[in-house]
Design a protein that fits this description.
Strand content of chain A: under 5%
Number of domains of chain B: 2
CATH topology of the largest domain in chain A: MetI-like fold
Helix content of chain B: 40-55%
Distance between the termini of chain A: 58 Å
Oligomer: heterodimer
Mean pLDDT of chain B: 91
Low-confidence stretches of chain A: none
Shape of chain A: globular
Helix content of chain A: over 70%
Structural class of chain A: mainly alpha
Number of strands of chain A: 2
Distance between the termini of chain B: 66 Å
CATH class of the largest domain in chain A: Mainly Alpha
Radius of gyration of chain A: 24 Å
Low-confidence stretches of chain B: none
Number of strands of chain B: 12
CATH superfamily of the largest domain in chain A: MetI-like
Radius of gyration of chain B: 25 Å
Order of helices and strands of chain A: HEEHHHHHHHHHHHHH
CATH class of the largest domain in chain B: Alpha Beta
Order of helices and strands of chain B: HEHEHEHHHEEHHEHHEHEHEEEHHHEHH
Number of helices of chain A: 14
Number of domains of chain A: 2
Mean pLDDT of chain A: 88
């Protein structure tokens, strides 16, 4: 190994190796190796305890069949589709959840960032306060919100006051369960993404704003025509990361809705279904095929989002 | 320019070399290893979940005593706190499964049918096996008739009732003569007179089975898609339909509820908070009430009674966990010696009887003076049941219990009609076997 560290740049090479060895090891085993293994596993039937059996595209054919059955069940009676086709239900729920969470968390993060970067006095305290949710474990957050979302809980105290007595049963009503989980996710992730936006806002050129002010642009116009277009790369980054996180959501659903997805299966996600297929039904190959489908959805959706955000916003 | 690729190659080679060394070192360090032992000692790994710190301490104490009595054997006790069976499966995949481990009755068929547990019945003395309640051995028998696990303890479903709410409503307490109709009538009257639900019960097949079995339904046994025909049996179909329709009506009127209906996580919590007058729960509720609701006392505030009779007799459910042995263990003799020590009379007296979490699986301990009075009462009642069904429906018990509970949950809420629920349950069984 000594020959590696001879020469004038040896210290840099050593530093490079030492700094990259840990993430590379983790990435190799928990990233690439797992990914390749899961992809290969999707062509096998395996229950861990007995040897693997090659089934070709059997798992994929079965998955497509289940999706078709689920779609038909959804068309015939949407309320009962979750009982007849849990996988389809998980897919439907997670797409709906992503549609609820990603735009809301991105917008909220942006608004929080603008507020934090504008408030001169106490802005540091403000940043700390709204970054706190990002530092809390999602499971703990979920447990606290279960308590807050109870029928006679804290949230319904305000909802009831504002709506003249309406008290939704957030966790036991299929209509409200998914929005409740989405609200917790938005609350927990917006703070994290707002820090990204704050960093971006601080790097924006002040001259552009000053010129806009001189030209008579108000705060809303400046936000719409300067801040948003200039932050476009960061918005793309936040939307992509948010979409990946939302599509893979597991922890909040597990804690707030349970393994079966709670009331009306409204909290059932594709990640929960993959878990149940693998660890409850012991069909690891089939679960891997579902994971490959989830990866394809994440990849395609993010490609679409990135392409869409490349288009000019300012005309 | 010529140096660049050379340096890059060297750096890449260096990274790979260090990566290999780090990974190899990590594997060496993280590989499950036995504690330091004399060269002649046999080390066995024993894995279980935790039922609290007291149980873990008692196990440690028992292990120390066992090691003193058997100087050549060292037992490494591994506590897996979450998702126990999943962890054990993963350890099989990694080739690092423990020598002896807890084997839940619901998971037993999974392990037995795949040859992942040793047929210990072939090796244990007959007089040792004969000490146990015979019905508790059933889930651990393979289709070859061999015995693959010995139950370490068990729990039984009983009717728990709040004496104060019964008195307040002026309703006589449950008796041995009670039928299911008596229970439902009492629940209605208590609700009318106290405003509290008379009965809180989970919408789960295992909690409803006593009703089904006592009304003539056979025991569920699902090993193939064809076994879904269980739900076509008139006794099953009729009793399930009756129970669902009664639940739907009772839930609307407020006298029968699920725990979620009254903001409780489970029936035991609802009963402990005195939100409902009765519940059908297992023996695990007894230590829970004692720990969480110390002012709500057995005997004066609450009591247990037999589950009611149906048209075909009286039935209840039993839940048990066995100790199973890894067929690849290299120390079978030591493992069997340890198993007999832990599950023998002295072991169960310390771990089961004194702790009061569950019931002893050895018949002779039913009269042990150390038994909690509530547990003694439950054991006295066991003989009065015509059928004690162990929580075990065949090859996919755990999976099917979850799937059926989802259908029952929708049914009691009135989302689906009782007849549709029965058909859906049949479909669930078929689907789980690829039908």
């Amino acid at each position: 190994m000594v020959f590696l560290f001879q020469g004038k740049r040896s210290v840099e090479y050593l530093a490079f190796i030492l700094l990259t060895i840990y993430p590379l090891t983790l990435n190799f085993f928990f990233g690439y190796f797992s990914m390749i293994f899961a992809f290969m596993l999707s062509f096998f039937s395996w229950d861990i305890l007995t040897p693997m059996k090659f089934v070709g595209l059997g798992n994929y054919a079965r998955m497509v069949q289940k999706l078709v059955v689920g779609f038909q069940a959804f068309l015939s009676d949407p309320r009962l589709a979750y009982l007849k086709a849990p996988f389809f239900n998980g897919l439907k729920n997670i797409l709906l959840y992503t549609a609820l969470v990603v735009p809301a968390q991105t917008l909220l993060a942006l608004i929080l960032a603008v507020l934090a970067s504008r408030a001169p006095r106490g802005s540091y305290a403000f940043r700390v306060i709204f970054f706190l949710p990002a530092t809390t474990c999602p499971v703990i957050v979920s447990l606290i919100f279960i308590w807050l979302f109870m029928r006679d809980g804290f949230i319904n105290y305000f909802v009831s006051y504002l709506t003249g007595g309406f008290r939704p049963d957030w966790l036991n009503d299929p209509v409200f369960l998914l929005p409740a989980i989405a609200l917790v996710a938005i609350w927990g992730t917006s703070a994290h993404f707002s820090v990204t936006f704050i960093a971006g806002l601080q790097a924006l050129p002040k001259e552009v704003y000053e010129a806009a002010k001189i030209d008579g642009a108000g705060p809303v116009q400046r936000f719409r025509h300067i801040t948003i277009p200039l932050l476009k790369p960061l918005i793309t980054y936040v939307v992509v990361l948010g979409t990946i996180g939302a599509l893979q959501m597991f922890d909040l659903a597990w804690v707030m809705a349970g393994q079966s997805g709670g009331a009306g299966g409204a909290g059932y996600t594709i990640a929960l279904d993959i878990y149940n297929t693998a660890f409850v039904q012991l069909q690891y190959g089939y679960a891997a095929a579902k994971a490959v489908l989830l990866f394809s959805i994440v990849f395609t959706l993010n490609y679409y989002v990135q392409e869409k955000l490349k288009q000019p916003w300012v005309r | 320019m010529a140096e660049k690729p050379k340096r890059t190659t060297l750096v890449v080679l260096g990274v790979i070399a260090i990566l290999v060394i780090v990974v190899a070192a990590a594997f060496m360090l993280l590989r499950p290893s036995a504690p330091a032992a004399p060269p002649t000692a046999t080390v066995i790994r024993f894995a279980g979940w935790s039922a609290g710190e007291t149980e873990m301490k008692n196990y440690q104490k028992l292990i120390e005593e066992f090691q003193k009595a058997n100087p050549g054997i060292i037992v490494k006790y591994e506590v897996i706190t979450q998702m126990f069976s999943e962890n054990i499966l993963a350890s099989y995949a990694a080739g690092a499964a423990p020598d002896i481990f807890y084997l839940d009755s619901a998971w037993a068929p999974v392990f037995i049918e795949r040859g992942a547990v040793y047929p210990i019945g072939d090796k244990l003395p007959k007089e040792f096996i004969d000490q146990f309640y015979p019905f508790l051995l059933e889930p651990f028998k393979g289709r070859d008739g061999k015995l693959y696990g010995i139950p370490k303890d068990w729990s039984v479903l009983s009717l728990f009732y709040n004496k104060k709410l019964f008195a307040q409503a002026g309703v006589p307490e449950p008796t041995e003569a009670w039928t299911w109709e008596d229970l439902f009538n009492a629940a209605q009257r208590i609700h009318q007179r106290t405003g509290k639900p008379g009965l809180v019960i989970h919408a789960e097949l295992n909690r409803w089975l006593p009703y089904l079995l006592s009304n003539g339904a056979p025991s569920p046994s699902f090993y193939s898609a064809a076994d879904a025909a269980y739900f076509d049996n008139p006794a099953v179909r009729n009793s399930l339909t009756r129970f669902i329709e009664m639940f739907q009506r009772g839930r609307k009127e407020g006298w029968i509820v699920t725990p979620a209906d009254i903001n409780a996580g489970w029936s035991g919590e609802a009963f402990g908070k005195q939100l409902a007058a009765m519940t059908i729960e297992g023996s695990w509720l007894i230590p829970y009430l004692s720990d969480q609701f110390p002012d709500f006392k057995y005997g004066s505030d609450w009591d247990i009674a037999l589950l009611p009779k149906g048209s075909a007799g009286r039935a209840t459910m039993a839940y048990t966990v066995a100790l199973g042995v890894n067929p690849k263990t290299e120390n079978l003799d030591a493992v069997l010696k340890f198993l007999q020590y832990v599950q023998g009379i002295e072991g169960q007296r310390l771990i089961v009887v004194q702790m009061g979490h569950t019931l002893p699986s050895i018949k002779a301990l039913a009269t042990d003076p150390g038994l909690w009075p509530s547990h003694r009462k439950e054991l006295d009642m066991v003989g009065k049941y015509d059928k004690v069904q162990v929580f075990f429906y065949g090859a996919k018990t755990g999976e099917l219990e979850g799937a059926i509970a989802q259908v029952l949950g929708a049914a009691v809420k009135g989302e689906i009609a009782a007849s549709d629920a029965v058909s859906l349950m049949k479909d669930k069984v078929k689907q789980s076997f690829g039908g």
